[in-house]
Structures are given as structure tokens and as C-alpha cells.
Amino acid sequence: PFVRLTDISYQVSAKSPVSLSIYDAAGRLVKQLVNEKRGAGYYTTNWNAKGFSSGIYFAKIKAGDWTATEKLILIR
């Protein structure tokens, strides 16, 4: 759970296109945080959820063939 700002950390194993997106509970894209090629390494991106309502959101990351989804809970 977070109140307004949260950090999302991830690791890329090889240079590849990276996409990090936030979706609402209905599956609608609400924010694109990253959409670019990144080299191998460890990254942290923050999401400022100011203006978003309380609820459950999902952070989905794609890096090459790898995909992961994490649940985020925004509390106001």
C-alpha cells in the first residue's frame, strides 16, 4: 500500500525494449511510466499517483520476452 508516491524497481538482464505501465482494476491503461530501450541493469521508476482515486492498480512490466505484474494499493 502507498499514499501518493511509490517506487517500482526492476532489473533488465540484457538490452531490450522495456515497457512499464499502470492499469486500473478494470484493466484500463491509466499511466505509461517507461517505454524505451534499456541496457542491462537495475532501475527504479516512481509513480506519482496524485489525481488518481484510491483503489487497486497493477504495474505491468515487459522487458524482451519477460513479463511480470504486481498489485499496487493506493490509499487516500
Q: Spell out the helices and strands N to C.
A: EEEEEE
Uncertain runs:
none
The end-to-end distance, rounded to whole angstroms, is: 10 Å
Structural class: mainly beta
The gyration radius over C-alpha positions equals 12 Å
Q: What's the β-strand tally?
A: 6
- Spatially, the strands of the biggest sheet line up as 3-2-5-6
Residues in helices, as a percent range = under 10%
Number of helices, counting only DSSP H or I runs of 4 residues or more: 0
In round numbers, the mean pLDDT is 95
**Content of β-strand:** over 45%
- Main beta-sheet strand count, sense and barrel state: 4 strands, antiparallel
What does the overall shape look like?
A: elongated
Q: Could you walk me through the main structural features you see in this protein, from its secondary elements to its overall organization?
A:
This protein is an all-beta fold and about 80 residues long. The chain is about 0% helix and about 70% strand. It contains no helices and six strands. It has strands at about 5-10, 15-25, 30-40, 40-50, 55-65, 65-75. A four-stranded antiparallel sheet has the order 3-2-5-6, with no helix packed on it. Strand 2 (about 15-25) and strand 3 form a beta hairpin. It is elongated and about 35 Å long. The model has no long low-confidence stretch (mean pLDDT about 95).
